[in-house]
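Minutes, project check-in
Item: structure for the 78-residue chain
Input as provided by the requester:
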Amino acid sequence: MCILHLTPDNELRILVNGEEKKKVNLLSSEDFEPILIHAKIIPDTNDKKPEDWDERAKIPNPDAVKQMIGKRMHQWKL
C-alpha cells in the first residue's frame, strides 16, 4: 500500500506499507526541478542601466520645500 501524506507546511511524505520512503518539501528547489512556485521577480537578462544612471544613494530634490517641524504654522484666533 502506498500513501502520500501532504502536511500544512508543504511537506510531502511517501509511505510504502506504513514505512516512510521519502520526505520532500513542495516549495524547495532542492527537491523539485523546476520548482513548483516560481520566484515573484524574474531577472531580465537583457536589462541594462542607462548611461546617465545616478548611483548616489540619496539624490537631492531641487523642488523640495523644507517643513517647519516643532514650530507653529498657523496663528489661531480665539
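Outcome recorded: DSSP finds no helices and three strands in the chain.
No further action items on this chain.
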